[in-house]
Design goal:
- This protein starts with a helix and ends with a helix.
- The chain is built from 26 helices and 22 strands.
- A hairpin with a 2-residue loop joins strand 13 and strand 14.
- With about 675 residues, it is α+β, with helices and mostly antiparallel strands.
- Among the domains are: about 60 residues, Helix Hairpins (Orthogonal Bundle), CATH 1.10.287.610; about 240 residues, D-amino Acid Aminotransferase, Chain A, domain 1 (2-Layer Sandwich); about 90 residues, Beta Barrel (OB fold (Dihydrolipoamide Acetyltransferase, E2P)), CATH 2.40.50.140; about 80 residues, Rossmann fold (3-Layer(aba) Sandwich), CATH 3.40.50.10190.
- Bound molecules: 2-(butylsulfanyl)adenosine.
- The site of 2-(butylsulfanyl)adenosine has 14 residues, from strand 3, strand 8 and strand 11.
């Protein structure tokens, strides 16, 4: 291909990819499946790799993050980034509107918007190309975070028109990303974030933009500078204009014609708040005509034409009665507060993770303390603070345990981890957890070998490691409590069948640090046999798409051990399959396309007893479904666990198909 046509091809690919990305990330209306996008993206990467001179700043390949900065440059906001005045009741809000109306000659409309709980950002475009992005800082001086903002998919690198423009908005972390990030942080023994806002702030201020890129941030833009340049005269028009350029705009804004309509909007979103996929902390009410903005102007800090109505926090007080410590599969010892049960956002809550000892110390949580409890990301119960005025006189700081609650071994902090770990490989809790993991659904999937049976097998010294599972006899199983011949036989058959599993199940089942089910599948698919994985180098593992050094190093370290060699020998002797017999990549995609879940928008709600929500979601996505956080008319299916709240009611009202967990599991089994 000549250089000229190659240049054109690259340009066409960029335009096509940017359009698809806008439809997906800004408009929430994908028009092509992910694999079509991925294929075109790879074509562009190949061209740019061979011809780096063809890379342009608006190329989607430039989002991945790159060089690590030493610090952030300061940026002057020529027009200061203002904050908002707050009100906390409808009465105060009514006064604000009345006062504004009194000072104006004509009756005006108000634009009502959600108050997104994130961080204010400013984005500058020259001739439609993204050139600079910054934080609000103190309103006058912010920080240049262009590199990081580039990695956020909803920030357009190129607008649909070649305009010179500055816009402002909010960068936030969706609830789902926040919950997943904290789960990951906790598993890896790292600091957890108190809320999505802090997580977004921490992610935006990373000097290494690859970290920001991993954190799945998003944006809503709500402010257009110099609107008169673009012929728009109201805030609602400005939002539409910015949407047409490619920015992500919160779709829930509404023009209200009077106070009553404003109050209706408030009530509606106060109700909907928990089901939104991102945190909001109130409503922003803005005079709609820009002429009013010019007329009434700003104080030093806040506009006189807008106000924030803040929601009361959804919090409950309760008393901490105990702190329970449990040892996980990786040895991390996690504290959980046990509290008097309270009703919170539709469910009864009596337990909240306290994550790690630093968390307990920082918040100074003690037994007997009255605490304020809320739901982080509207899902996970979390203690926000101790009510010191209600602390009993005889209270003492909570003593952090020094020894493992299960085996008594000394607990340690590895490297700079905040987590406490039991590193005794023979710790019963650790061994039992590893056995349970080995038998679990995504690993060897040995039905009937759950926590209860494993605890008995271990305590009766019938099983001490995973290889022993394959040596069990019917007589041994019949020694267990409440197990009859039929279920013992079923269990033996399930154990026997698991010998034939494809390699990725065994690899995941070994419980290697950082190796999740998805990584195990990619690795097994790539290397095909356990022997080849054992010999693989960090570089070889890293050559697999999406595989990073943390996973690769963890695998290499795991296999560099005599004990692991012996275990694998034992498993081989037990005739456990050590080769990949699963689907090829093409088959995986084909299966997804054939699944009845393909193309459905599915919502999961309520408490699931048998499945982890993350696993259910992964399964649905692998079968072509899109899993969303809130029920809308676009939803096709609601999977409702028990104690399902407002989402269930809404789905019933909208006549959306609803199934329970059991039916879902049945359908999963029919599919797999
Ligand atoms: S308007 C001059 N609109 O709330 C205009 N702000 O507490 C000022 N915020 O600093 C901002 N959602 O970071 C506006 N729809 C929205 C908003 C919003 C969230 C944030 C913004 C602001 C803070 C004030």
């Amino acid at each position: 291909m000549s250089d000229k046509s190659l240049k054109q091809t690259a340009q066409d690919l960029r335009n096509q990819l940017n359009t698809w990305a806008r439809e997906y990330y800004s408009l929430d209306k994908p028009t092509v499946p992910d694999d079509v996008y991925d294929k075109k993206y790879q074509e562009l990467v190949n061209i740019e790799h061979a011809h780096p001179e063809l890379i342009t700043p608006d190329s989607p390949t430039q989002r991945v993050g790159g060089q690590v900065l030493k610090g952030f440059e300061k940026i002057n906001h020529e027009i200061p980034m203002l904050s908002l005045g707050d009100v906390f009741s409808k009465e105060e809000l009514g006064n604000f509107v009345d006062n504004l109306d009194k000072n104006l000659d004509e009756k005006i409309d108000y634009n009502c918007e959600l108050k997104i709980d994130g961080l204010a950002i400013s984005l500058v475009y020259r001739k439609g190309i993204f050139v600079q992005g910054s934080t609000r800082g103190n309103g006058r001086i912010g920080e240049d975070i262009t590199q990081n903002l580039r990695t956020i998919k909803s920030v357009p690198l190129k607008l649909s028109e070649p305009v010179d423009v500055e816009v402002r908005g909010e960068c936030y972390m969706p609830k789902k990303s926040f919950v997943e990030l904290n789960e990951r942080q906790e598993k890896e023994g790292k600091q957890i974030f108190a809320n999505a806002r802090n997580a977004a702030a921490g992610s935006l201020r990373q000097l290494d933009s690859r970290i920001t890129s991993d954190r799945k941030l998003s944006t809503f833009i709500y402010y257009l500078m110099e609107p008169e340049k673009f012929g728009v005269t109201t805030q609602s028009q400005a939002l539409e204009k910015m949407r047409s350029w490619g920015f992500k705009i919160d779709p829930d804004f509404k023009v209200a014609h009077d106070k009553e309509e404003i109050f209706e909007y408030i009530d509606k979103y106060q109700e909907k708040r928990a089901s939104l996929t991102y945190d909001i902390d109130g409503i922003v009410i803005k005079a709609n005509p820009f002429s009013v903005h010019r007329e009434v102007g700003n104080t030093v800090k806040v506009p006189r034409w807008a106000i924030a109505y803040k929601f009361p926090p959804d919090e409950q007080e309760t008393i901490v009665r105990d702190i329970e410590w449990t040892v996980g599969r990786t040895g991390v010892v996690t504290p959980t507060a046990i509290m008097d049960p309270v009703q919170l956002a539709g469910t009864t809550v009596s337990r909240a993770s306290l994550h790690n000892p630093d968390y307990i110390k920082e918040k100074d949580i003690r037994i007997g303390d009255t605490v304020k409890l809320h739901k982080a990301g509207d899902i996970i119960p979390e203690i926000s603070m101790v009510v010191l005025s209600k602390r009993p006189n005889d209270s003492v700081p909570y003593p952090i345990p020094k020894n493992c609650p299960e085996c008594g071994a000394k607990l340690v902090h590895l490297d700079d981890e905040v987590a406490l770990r039991c590193i005794n490989p023979k710790c019963p809790a650790l061994v039992k957890e590893s056995l349970t993991h080995f038998a679990s659904r995504n690993a060897m999937d040995i039905r009937g070998l759950g926590t209860r049976i494993i605890a008995q097998l271990y305590d009766k010294k019938l099983v001490k490691d995973i290889a022993d599972i394959y040596k069990l006899t019917i007589d041994e199983l019949l020694q267990l409590d409440k197990i009859k011949e039929k279920s013992a036989n079923n269990l033996l058959t399930a154990i026997d069948n698991s010998r034939e599993n494809s390699l990725e199940r065994l690899l995941f089942g070994l419980g290697i640090r950082h190796v999740g089910a998805k990584a195990a599948k990619l690795i097994a698919q790539h290397f095909k046999t356990m022997d080849r994985i054992k010999e693989a180098s960090v570089e070889e593992i890293c050559s697999i798409k999406t595989m990073g050094t943390i996973i690769a190093e963890s695998i290499v370290t795991y296999f560099d051990s005599k004990e692991v060699d012996e275990l694998l020998e034992e498993l081989k002797k037990a005739r456990v399959n050590m080769s990949y017999t699963g689907e090829s990549e093409a088959e995986i995609l084909e299966n997804a396309a054939n699944s009845p879940f393909n193309g459905l928008r599915v919502v999961l709600t309520g408490t699931l007893d048998h499945l982890k929500r993350a696993d259910a979601k992964k399964w649905l996505e692998a079968h072509g479904a899109k899993v969303t956080g809130s029920v809308s008319s676009k939803t096709n299916l609601l999977i409702a666990g028990h104690d399902a709240g407002s989402k269930l009611t809404k789905a019933e009202n909208l006549k959306i198909k609803i199934i329970n967990e059991e039916t879902f599991i049945q359908q999963m089994e029919e599919e797999d």
